[in-house]
Amino acid sequence: MTSNSTPPPLGVYVPAVLYFDENEDFDVPAIQAHILRLAKGGVTGILVQGSNGEAQHLSHDERKEAIRLTRKTLDDNGFQQVVIIAGTGAQSTRETKKLCKDAAEAGAAFCLVLTPSVWPTQMTPEKIIKFHSDVADASPIPTMVYNFPVVTAGLNLDSDIIGELAKHPNIVGTKLSCGTIGKLHRLTSTVPITKFATFPGVSDVFLQGLVSGSAGLIGALPNVAPKAHMEVYRLYKAGKIQEAEKIQGLLGHADWELGKLGSIGGIKAVVSKHFGTTKLDELIVLEKSL
What we know:
Belongs to the DapA family. This protein is α/β, with parallel strands linked by helices. Helix content is about 45%, strand content about 15%.
């Protein structure tokens, strides 16, 4: 464990989708092309093995290779500054610790950790805090708490639990895929952003999160439109809120439509073929203009 670890840089992070060939092996050229498209779009970092990265379908070796491939692709093309966060969620403390170690060895700078959820009724606040603390104690790189009730059998970490975990010297942030602005604001108003980075996990509250003191965004929609998200971030930082609101409105509609297309499958379809419906089409036009 690193003492007094530093949170990830503020900005936009993308849980990048992975591509596979007909044999269910990595489609390396497609993965590399997508990584470079995101980097050229200006994103701050890439989340490998997020919920959109299909970690649940991969072996440990494949998970480690996906991180290594992403880091190498970025470095070989002059994008050394792009940060890698690795999803290291597993159903036991021991396996999660192993995945954190693998992630560090493969080139990740941070780990994003889901709470085990096979038996959710047994996961009391005390057990959740102990799990994340034990993982952070053992991790060679800083960890972040991933709150995503949809994929953890309804487990929804509240601001009291996350706020307690924020006191750990090696837990440096959270991704709130619950999209709850009230929870986000309670955390940002309690824990300094220099010590703990709170990110919303959905684009439809990106700007609202920034206004509430978030560290940026870790969201799926930047897979489709990284430049548009960076433009919202730039406009917000420049104090041009009304201009940012116009794009944010489009992001909110597009995020909703993307979910109806089927999340991971929808993202891959839109990125690969640039088809969409109404607001997604409009967002793609905007993305190409930036």
